[in-house]
Amino acid sequence: MDYLSMAIVVVALVAIVLARSVVIVPIPYAGLVERLGRYHRTLQPGLSLVVPFIDSLRYKVDLSEQTHSFTPRYVVSKDDEIVTTEMLVRFQVVDPVAATYEVANYVTVFDERTQRPLEDIVGEMDLERALVSDRQITAKLNRVLRDAAASWGVRVNEVEITSIRHSPSTRQRSS
Q: Can you give the pTM of this predicted structure?
């Protein structure tokens, strides 16, 4: 092998090492670096250096406010009427490490964590009260989600009920 070929190989290897060392994290994301498969550090937006082949940027976590719409929820009121609610939650990741490693998918958990409290809240109200109590329901759901999401590194900014309406049941009512 002549010197020119060796120089080309060395330059190529140096270029590869440098390319693997530089990581760019866009705004408004945080980058989670794992070293040999374990969490090592969090990168802020901008240009950062990592140890090539040992460190890897495993996750880019969006730190901007996000909105999630829930699928319609069907709950039963105190007087056995079906109430349909549609809502959305506005949230923001404040601890990317907890949001990534403490919970598998916080958006899915939002869906799961709202069903039971919503059933409890509406289940204590009759149909007429449930249809006009969206502020009261929203306030209780805000508390429930804020408390739960804090341990996941997520701040719930607002839970909003966008629609609450009566869903006539298909069963035959006796007179």
A: 0.80
